[in-house]
Amino acid sequence: MALTAETESRLYRSLRVAAGAAAHLVALGFPAAVAVLARPGSSLFSWHPLLMALAFSFLMTEALLIFSPETSLLRSFSRKVRVRAHWALQLLALFCALLGLGIITYNKHLNGKGHFVTWHGLTGLLAVLYTGGQCAGGVLLLYPKLMKNWTLAKLKLYHATSGLVGYLLGCASLMLGMCSLWFTTTVTGASWYLAMLCPLVTSLVIMNQVSNAYLYRKRSQH
């Protein structure tokens, strides 16, 4: 029997809610697992994986999910409050990422190792720099008059789209980090595959959220 439009809509909404809930759990669970593995404080390096997991898995994921109509933890608050929370989380993510980058750079210097000679290192550097640029670009949303030829709606759309690119870069850096010698000697078997799924799950949820925002804007124009 064919599903009615109303039933399909409810089913789709339920799936989005479930996916969002899974993203929240993964966003928090992944850094927690990394903290157990890295044992922050046991060495200088131990802070690097934790800070990067906090930046790109937890803080940035929550900063983006905060605008989800189904799964935002602040959906009962005004948009102004959610925007401020988004800013705070993004700045915290940038701070953690910069600190994590500084720590690994200094650690390599102490051990006489080369800088940014792996795909993980290069992608991580690009992700951090991109995040900094994305935060700077967000200022345009606070002062849209700086871009006289662009509407606020268009600025929001481009900011969300470019933010998705930065988020995917961060997730790619995390996944490449899980291919490193440190991670593969610590996590093996099914646990390694499960860990690799974490950035994939959150990436799919965030991509769906951004694509829905784009489709909603297109419909509102007609």
TrEMBL record:
Pfam families cross-referenced by the UniProt entry: Cytochrom_B561
Cofactor(s) named in the record: heme b
Membrane-crossing segments per the record: 17-38, 44-67, 87-106, 118-143, 164-184, 190-210
A single GO cellular-component term on record: membrane
GO molecular function, one term: metal ion binding
Keywords: Electron transport, Heme, Iron, Membrane, Metal-binding, Transmembrane, Transmembrane helix, Transport
Record Gene3D superfamilies: 1.20.120.1770
CDD domains assigned: Cyt_b561_CYB561D2_like
E.C. number(s) listed in UniProt: 7.2.1.3
Annotated membrane topology: Multi-pass membrane protein
Tree of life domain: Eukaryota
The keyword DNA-binding appears for this protein: no
PANTHER family: OS05G0565100 PROTEIN (PTHR15422), TRANSMEMBRANE REDUCTASE CYB561D2 (PTHR15422:SF21)
Protein name in UniProt: ascorbate ferrireductase (transmembrane)
